[in-house]
UniProtKB/TrEMBL annotation:
One Gene Ontology term of the molecular function aspect: proline dehydrogenase activity
GO biological process, one term: L-proline catabolic process to L-glutamate
Keyword Signal: no
Annotated EC: 1.2.1.88
Every Aldehyde dehydrogenase domain range: 58-512
Protein name: L-glutamate gamma-semialdehyde dehydrogenase
UniProt xrefs under NCBIfam families: D1pyr5carbox1
Catalytic activity field: L-glutamate 5-semialdehyde + NAD(+) + H2O = L-glutamate + NADH + 2 H(+)
Top-level EC class as recorded in UniProt: oxidoreductase
GO CC annotations on file: cytoplasmic side of plasma membrane
Matching InterPro entries: Ald_DH/histidinol_DH (IPR016161), Ald_DH_C (IPR016163), Ald_DH_CS_CYS (IPR016160), Ald_DH_N (IPR016162), Aldehyde_DH_dom (IPR015590), P5CDH/ALDH4A1 (IPR005931), Proline_metab_enzyme (IPR050485)
Amino acid sequence: MSNGVFKIPTAKNEPGNTYAPGTKERETLKAELKRQSEMVVEIPVIINGEDVKTDTVKQVVMPHDHQHVLANYSQAGEKELRDAVEAAMAAKEAWANMPWEHRASIFLKAADLISGPYRDVMNAATMLGQSKTAFQSEIDAAQELIDFLRFGVECANQIYQIQPESMKNIWNRTDYRPLDGFVLAISPFNFTAIGGNLPAAPAMMGNVVVWKPATTSILANYYFMRILEEAGLPKGVINFVPSRGSQVSEVVLTDRRMSGFHFTGSTDTFNTIWKTVGENIAKYNSYPRLIGETGGKDFVFAHETAQADKVAAALVRGAFEYQGQKCSAASRAYIPASMWEEVKGKLLEETAKLKVGDVRDFRNFMGAVIDKPAFDSITGYIDYAANSEDAEIIAGGTYDDSVGYFVQPTIIVTTNPNFKTMVEEIFGPVLTIYVYENDKLEETLDAVNTASIYALTGAIFAQDRQAIIHLERRLSEAAGNFYINDKPTGAMVNQQPFGGSRGSGTNDKAGSIFNMIRWTSPRVIKENFVPTTDITYPFMDEE
Ligand SMILES: NC(=O)c1ccc[n+]([C@@H]2O[C@H](COP(=O)([O-])OP(=O)(O)OC[C@H]3O[C@@H](n4cnc5c(N)ncnc54)[C@H](O)[C@@H]3O)[C@@H](O)[C@H]2O)c1
Ligand SMILES: N[C@@H](CCC=O)C(=O)O
């Protein structure tokens, strides 16, 4: 029994640790890295709160030391996937009917557990399993994940307060029901926070979920699942099913009770899923909500009034942090000829300083790329540029996968604004630059707008206010997250709600009210306190 309109604790962005030499946080994180490096975790499938081991067991390795096994995980097959759907459906009624403040408490508690006792665990698992540096892990597995949980609760609370007007004798109410079925969440490898948010956001709104994590981020995703359990998530509300994507599509995506799909990953995968849903549309109980944040080919555009050193700094951080494996990473840049020599000098100087290696050595700025297919794909682009007459590699261009999947930060300069590496998402530490003549501003802006199918993030650099206004207008459809005099990465929950359009997804802005509202199916209730007995209208009494 709940009596009260409860006040949700005010959400604030989680402050980050620095891990500077001599700090306590650096010491405890290093100890946790050592502990996790010396053990092999056995990761089960988790269905209805029960650990399930299967016959298909696969390994999780460190990308920066690929012979080092961190964990073995059970892969769910068809039976486990079907069981997960049934477990979710069985948990549905009790979860949907749990008083909202108790649902909220579970996620707020999980946020506090990550902020406190499990911060090192989440960071170490993300560093070792996904090859993130301490800095990159902290902004993801700690800060962003905590923010998603706390602001998610706040957004849900705001939605529940959106209520209709009522007239004399009438009370109108909106009942924010969860969707009529279950939600399938499929997450990418590159952000532990996104992995957590994809199942958590629909669950906060009262939905039950089948969650398929990416195979290369399973370790951190598994620890998050355990934290949710410790926070009190009832059995079956989120079912954790490491599995093959194609099999999830066959078995879970096409189940008639699938009412929502929450995805982040590549555009190709989302297209395949959308097509599968379309082909099966007559089968579903209700039209499934399809929410997908996908790829990017993010740009930095410098105007002739920009400051060269700031442009160069944004390019280095925007392109090479986390090995360029951010959907928001700066991967194409447009620099005016008048500024190029200065930008180039600074870029080469700063890029030469970046150390690439094992993330347990805190002096490294970059770790390894995620796995062998990613390594082969990224180095394929580098080789293509090396052999092209339209391009010159001015930094990096080398790679080595003998110990870990290491790719040096690479800068390509091209004379063709539609060169392959200016157009396609590479998802690695490769930046391509097109130097434009100062008097070709409009043609170059057209190229920014049309070169790729994506519209995720983009940054402009300029000092002149009229130029800023002009660029902002001319590139209005080119990015869902647009930056002025800043790098195109590092969006924060509740500050820069994140998502793009065109080939970059449905732009539902993760962690915001726009996304959370997709997980409800509102029922409007009209209650009449004084029902009428009149059948006819008053004006019918006389002619
Ligand atoms: N827009 C954003 O907010 C955002 C954020 C992070 C990553 N991304 C994008 O994600 C991509 C990188 O992540 P990734 O390599 O994990 O992406 P991916 O598309 O390869 O995989 C994403 C998930 O989909 C699963 N999957 C693959 N094929 C499937 C299929 N046929 N059916 C069902 N599931 C399938 C994978 O196993 C994984 O869990 C990049 O394109 C990046 O831009 C976008
Ligand atoms: N939200 C993150 C990117 C997530 C995609 O990989 C950023 O803004 O850098």
